[in-house]
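Please produce the structure of this protein holding S-adenosylmethionine.
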Amino acid sequence: MATLGIPQNTIAVLQKYNFNFQKKFGQNFLIDTHVLDKIINAAEITKEDFVLEIGPGIGTMTQYLCENAREVVAVEIDKNLIPILEDTLKEYDNVTVINEDVLKVDINKLAEEKNNKKPIKVVANLPYYITTPIIMGLFESHVPIDSITIMVQKEVAERMQVGPGTKEYGALSLAVQYYAKPEIIANVPPNCFMPRPKVGSAVIRLTRHKETPVQVEDEKLMFRIIRASFNQRRKTLVNGLKNSGELSFSKEIIEESIEELGVPLTIRGEALSLEQFAMLSNILSKKTESKS
Ligand code: SAM
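Below is the modeled complex.
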C-alpha cells in the first residue's frame, strides 16, 4: 500500500484528478502517517470489526482501516471524491463507499445488515462544521456502538471531557459522558493536514458505557433540561428552565423540584453534575408540565 499519508502521494492524487477543496464540506486531509497510526491503534481495530468511516476524503485513513478491519463502510458527501476513492481503494474488496450525507444514512440499518446488530466501531477525521450533530445522532439514535474514535477541533475534544466548574462544561460534555467514556489520545497541529485548518485538532476516543452511569426515567426530558440550563448560561437554573421553549413547567414546580434536589434556588445550571441533572429530571418527570 503506497500510503496517502505522505504529502507527496496526496498531492499526486489531487493533481491527477484536478481536485478542488470544498470549504463548505470541512475538507482538511490528513498527511501524517504517525497520526494515522495513532488513530488506528486507539480504535483497537481487529479483523473481527466492522468499521464505519465518516468522510473518507481521498481514502487516506480508509486504506489503513481496510488493512486492519474485517469490513469498512465509508460515507462521503462530495461526489467529486467518489472516482478518486474508486482508484485509491481498488486493492481492497472489504470496503463499500456510500455517496451520501452521513446525517441522512440509517446507521442502525447498516449495523443490522453488515454486523448482525453487534456494536460497530466508528472512526473519522470529522468535518468540524457538523461534529456535534454527528456524535449526538450516533448516540441518541441508539446505534449499537463499541467506540467512536475521531479527530475533532481541540476545544471540542476538551469540552467533551470536562466536568462542572469549568467554562467549557456544557450540554455536549454531559451528553458524551452519559453515553461514553471520553479519552483524548493526541493533540494534532494544523501542519498535519492539507490544507491547514485555522484551529488545533485532537483525536478523542469515546468508549460506549455498557451501562449508563446514572439511571434516568425519561432520557429525552433530561436532555431538554440540560439544553435549557445551558441556553442561558449566566442565568439561574430556575430562569433557564422557566424560559425554555422546550419545557413548560410552572415556576412553582421548578422551584419545588430544585429544593427537592437539595441545592440553593440561586444555583446556575452549569454547577450541576450529570448525576444531579439525572436526579432533577427524575423529580420533574413525576410532575406535570402546564399547558400554557
Ligand atoms: N478522512 C479524510 C482524511 O482524514 O484525510 C478526510 C477528512 S476531512 C476533515 C472531512 C471529510 O468529510 C471530507 O472528505 C468531506 O467531504 C466529508 N464530509 C463533509 N460533510 C460530510 C457529510 N455530511 N457526510 C459525509 N461526509 C462529509
